[in-house]
Write a structure and sequence with these properties.
The protein is mainly beta and 707 residues long. It contains ten helices and 44 strands. It has an eight-stranded parallel β-sheet. Strands 11-12-13-18-15-16 form a six-stranded antiparallel β-sheet, covered by helices on one side. Strands 19, 21, 24, 26, 29 and 31 form a six-stranded antiparallel β-sheet that branches. It catalyses: Hydrolysis of terminal, non-reducing alpha-D-galactose residues in alpha-D-galactosides, including galactose oligosaccharides, galactomannans and galactolipids. Keywords: Disulfide bond, Glycosidase, Hydrolase, Signal.
Length: 707
């Protein structure tokens, strides 16, 4: 997907419906996600995506769809080992009932197809340790042209009947719906199912027509995001493209459903079927087998029973994978896993073999010294420090499980988070960016971080919903950061920034919009093993939510010991001089280290101090343990009356003292600052406005007092 086409998502509203895009040579309709996800329905079901079977893709309404076939599928689940790897539901689709209800208004099973009735079939399935599912439609009739009765207006009656039969799953279609409001129609059946007291998984099948990702989580356990799949590469990959952008709306109890599996039906190659199964698992989609399992090929069973791939789909963290790069038909997806690792799919949508590549940083899992890779199809294992790539056949997918090794040591001293390796990073659109705004596509496509006109050289550019984790090891004290919606979000954007120490919320920005200035957050991290930076949508939909963590300063380790210290005896964090290096206890000689003289201002010499030349900038890490800084400030006598400078003292980036203009004709001036609780001390010398000439600036007998 090109950046230009991707940006159209932001300019559409819910009323515009679907957008036709050409992606990887395939024209697809992309629905626009426009509101935050609803809370998952509280029925205790589908904590991971449902797995099972549905007959429609292999039989439709043909005569072979009958009681014997359904019971044979249940037998196959056990005999073929499918039950053992997680497939649970044996579901039947349309055409199971007679075209008319009975005199009491009840649905009647077709006696030719189901001579012993539906309850008997459900009992047979249950006896195998499996669960049974049924089909209806939220309309006056179901979708088959023969016109079987739908559930509209009969919700309570039908739900009670199904519960009495032992139904465990309902697929509820959208045909012949009379134009009635979809939310109300689907809610009515959801309420009726819950009222039965029987746990019935509720699969909403309204084809994405009314953007169910915005509302269906409060009603059902899954919702179709697309029209019907067919057994072809173009149909399958087009549906994947439609479902991929909807990752923020899926989670335990409620899943995006890109329709059933076609694996084994014969319309695609085994390579394409492996891509199909890989992408559905990477997208945390329901895995409902759509082929006849009574006589499957060995290749079909090998795909459907790949426990490594199934484990990705069923991962208890419940995150849908996201696209981290897509260019020229080469698509990389990353899915966070509960063990702290990632699954990654490298998909080649082209008609010839290509190399598909990514890095651990792009996957959002940087921060370890090495990573174990397991190819989930070949089962080969390897390791990497960063790069992940593979030669991928036409229409193929290579799928890895990526597991980090030992984390890098925890940070010490003052650190900008934009320069540190994270443990994991998950972003709503595109990768998290270091020291750039979020560009929504490939890494590095953002711009300078800018909030309400203020630019920042350091920080993290994200897009809601995002979650970034850093390993602290219990050795950090605090985080100070400015937060806000980046100015590139010209048409809106509203987010909430939250900082967690381990599982404890320690700072919350409240709602921040594109019109707000930067807000400052300060978080106490003492004793924390982990730092989490989380951005959530502000309630108006995940759109234009370009959220910046600007100048995030992390303070770790111990500052100077208790007592009063000569600053020139302490190690600085950084030191930069205008001409030559900063000197300890010597004036600035402008060339090599140690070429200065005794510090002398107004004929008084000083044994201790720092010799600099404007413009200079020296930082010290205090670790929050110091209280006061004081020094003399003057232009060294070695330049005579020449030279003019300004001395400035900063505590945690805030100006705490300013000497005003000091020249070579002036004596030393006293300068000091309260640095209580500060993590960083900065000593800055600037030119006073007459050019950087003979600006030999001395910090005289600088002293730091610490607790």
């Amino acid at each position: 997907m090109t950046a230009e086409l991707h940006s159209f998502r932001h300019r559409l509203t819910a009323s515009l419906g679907a957008l036709a895009l050409v992606v990887g040579g395939v024209t697809v309709a992309v629905e626009v996600a426009s509101a935050p996800p609803a809370a998952a329905v509280d029925n205790g079901l589908a904590r991971t995506p449902q797995m099972g079977f549905n007959n429609w893709n292999s039989t439709h309404c043909r005569s072979e769809f009958n009681e014997s076939m359904v019971e044979g599928i249940a037998d196959a689940f056990v005999a073929q080992g499918l039950k053992d790897v997680g497939y649970t539901y044996v579901n039947i689709d349309d055409c199971w009932a007679l075209p008319n209800r009975d005199a009491s208004g009840n649905l009647v099973p077709d006696p030719a197809r189901f001579p012993h009735g539906i309850k008997a079939v459900a009992d047979y399935v249950h006896a195998k340790g499996l669960k049974f599912g049924l089909y209806s439609s939220a309309g006056t009739k179901t979708c088959d042209t023969q016109g079987f009765p739908g559930g509209l207006g009969h919700e309570r009656q039908d739900a009670e009947l199904w519960a009495s039969w032992g139904v465990d799953y309902l697929k509820y279609d959208n045909c012949n719906n009379t134009g009635a409001d979809a939310r109300q129609r689907y809610k009515a059946m959801g309420d009726a199912l819950r009222a039965t007291g029987r746990p019935i998984l509720y699969s909403i099948c309204e084809w994405g027509s009314n953007q169910p990702w915005n509302w269906a989580a409060g009603t059902g356990n899954s919702w179709r995001t697309t029209g019907d799949i067919s057994d072809s590469w173009s149909s399958m990959i087009g549906i994947a493209h439609q479902n991929q952008p909807l990752a923020p709306y899926a989670g335990p109890g409620g899943w995006n459903d890109p329709d059933m599996l076609e694996v084994g039906n014969g319309g695609m190659t085994d390579t394409e079927y492996r891509t199909h199964f890989s992408l559905w698992s990477q997208m945390a989609a329901p895995l409902l087998i759509g082929s006849d399992l009574r006589n499957p090929s060995a290749a079909t069973l090998a795909i459907l029973k790949n426990t490594d791939v199934i484990a990705v789909d069923q991962d208890p963290l419940g995150r849908q994978g996201t696209v981290v790069s897509s260019s020229g038909g080469l698509v990389v997806m990353s899915k966070p896993l509960a063990d702290g690792g990632r699954s990654v799919t490298l998909t080649n949508e082209n008609t010839s073999a290509r190399t598909v590549a990514t890095t651990v940083d792009a996957l959002g899992i940087g921060g370890a010294s090495s990573y174990a890779l397991k190819d989930l199809w070949s089962k080969q294992t390897s390791s990497t420090t960063s790069a992940i790539s593979a030669s991928v056949p036409a229409h193929g997918t290579v799928m890895y499980r990526v597991t980090p090794g030992a984390p890098v040591p925890p940070p010490t001293g003052p650190n900008q988070l934009g320069d540190l390796p994270w443990t994991s990073a998950v972003n709503g659109w595109g990768p998290v960016e270091r020291n750039r705004s979020n560009g929504e596509q490939a890494a590095g496509d953002g711009r300078t971080l800018t909030i309400d006109g203020t630019t920042y050289a350091k920080g993290l550019g994200t897009h809601a919903a995002s979650d970034i984790t850093y390993y602290l090891g219990g050795g950090c004290r605090s985080l100070n950061v400015d937060v806000g919606v980046d100015d590139e979000s010209t048409a809106g954007g509203s987010v909430v920034f939250r900082i967690y120490r381990d599982q404890t919320l320690v700072a919350d920005s409240g709602l921040r919009t594109a019109s707000d200035p930067p807000a400052h957050l300060a978080a106490d991290l003492r004793g924390g093993g982990k730092l989490r930076l989380v951005v959530t949508d502000g309630g108006d939909g995940i759109t234009y939510d370009h959220a910046d963590w600007a100048a995030p300063q992390l303070a770790c380790g111990q500052g100077p010991s208790a007592g009063t210290h000569a600053l020139s005896d302490l190690a600085w964090s950084s030191a930069a001089g205008g001409w030559g290096p900063v000197e300890r206890d010597r004036s600035n000689g402008e060339q090599a280290a140690g070429d200065g003289k005794l510090l002398t201002v107004g004929t008084t010499t000083y044994a201790k101090g720092l010799g600099t030349h404007a413009a200079s900038d020296i930082t010290y890490y205090l670790g929050g343990t110091c209280t006061a800084f004081k020094a003399g400030a003057g232009v060294d006598d070695e330049v005579g009356a020449k030279g003019s400078v300004v001395f400035q003292v900063y505590r945690d980036g805030v100006l705490a003292a300013d000497s005003g203009k000091v020249t070579g004709s002036d004596g030393a001036k006293a300068i000091g600052a309260d640095v209580s609780g500060a993590n960083e001390l900065r000593l800055v010398v600037t030119d006073a406005g007459d050019g950087v000439d003979y600006d030999h600036a001395d910090w005289l007998d600088p002293q730091l007092t610490c607790d």
